[in-house]
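Researcher: Can you fold this with adenosine-5'-diphosphate in place?
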Amino acid sequence: MSRQRTFDLVIAANRLPVDRVVAPDGSSEWHRSPGGLVTAMDSVMRGREGAWVGWAGETGEAPAPFEESGMWLHPVPLSEEEQTTYYEGFSNDTLWPIYHDVIVPAHFHREWWQDYEVVNARFADAVCEIAAPGAKVWIHDYQLQLVPAMVRARRPDVRIGWFNHIPFPPVGLFAQLPWRAKIIEGLLGADYLGFQRQADAQNFVRAARQLGGCATKGETVTAKGPDGGERVVRASAVPISIDYAGLDELARSEPVQERAQEIRESLGNPDIVMLGVDRLDYTKGIRHRLKAYEELLDEGVFVPPEITFVQVATPSRERVEAYKTLRTEIETTVGRINGTYSDLGAPAVHYLHQSYPREEMAALFQVADVMLVTPLRDGMNLVAKEYVTCRHDEGGALVLSEFTGAWHELHQAFVCNPHDIEGLKQTMVRALETDPKEKRRLMRALRRRVCEYDVQRWADRFLSNLESAPQRPGRSKGD
Ligand code: ADP
Ligand code: G6P
């Protein structure tokens, strides 16, 4: 029997960077997984020797571990039922709404919670199996909040960090969770907890104090260890970013620039192209943006075919009821707008419910005169950072919701409150009408920010915070 490979850096995220997609004829292919977590962590892990523990996106037996671009991918299985209870249920129909301001109601089911515990334990086992002595273990996101304490109980020698890619809710909302104390306890198994915004870190510290009964001071929480001893856990903000250099280079490449021209031509060379790119999620404010656009058409402020709006909406969590409802609403609205304002061969809205390769996204970003990023709540929103990165021509304008993590860094964007439809309409018009010289100045500043704070810098900051997190008493390695 071959010896189990072990790694000094192990990351665990619900999804692997690739999903296995099985065709009806039984053949299988690997596709890139959706979402910002994968975009960011894929570029971080490519430069480092490490392992990635995650779900391969299909139910049943997990594929055998394998190597991909220098990364060791270690699949964790989910049964059909766990997909419903742990993934679609507890992760995406309980936690996701609670952590995003309850934009839709959260559902609470004890069986979902039980499977959340079971699957978290499975992830913890997989991590412990492949973590080398004294390894750094970096756990990601809301699906795996119990894993830090579970790993700590089995492997006191490793250093444990957790990063939350989504917001952490205010204590009043978090308090609704019947399992809130267990979640706090699970997270406090880590040495260091990273959040997108300072407000998220503060929300966690407050929850640990008010609901977990822990002593807190500034960014630190005093937690009880499994042996009854006390440990100090730090919680702070490290906003995530993207691979600026890689995407900038891709956007400047000839094929991408040619493709951008082709796209503009195939849209009928309109004067103005507006663009939205999101997972089809109720957090993204797609309905609000369509409403604002439709009203501007109604008022004759926007007149197709001089203007067109391209909405790319990646399929997401399609079996969850709130996502089904959202899809129906969006598609009905797009149909209504197009029925009223399109001409033959010139739709007022191009709606694309598909995923595209990075090259195509980079080309699309270069076509967009105005990029609409209007979430009602979003941990970061990497699309905003990707858009400015692709604008090496310093053209375009970014309309950005104040409810995104990105807004806390990208102050030169045209800020909007997506709930305020009148204000959103005015911001869309202002983004178009502002003097091009001024817009170039703003775009330059936005690009500088993303260039300086790129994803490698984020990862280095996270790992160095993990490294320097308060030492635990009785650590078995490196004492
Ligand atoms: P979230 O993580 O909530 O999905 P982000 O904006 O942080 O939101 O990240 C989304 C990521 O998915 C970005 O890297 C974006 O380019 C990518 N993406 C979004 N829509 C598509 C699509 N239709 N095809 C390919 N990639 C997409
Ligand atoms: C967000 C979450 C990720 C998640 C992604 C895609 O980025 O923070 O954890 O992987 O959305 O969602 P999905 O449910 O398809 O994994």
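Model: Folded with adenosine-5'-diphosphate in place. Confidence is low (pLDDT under 50) at residues 473-479.
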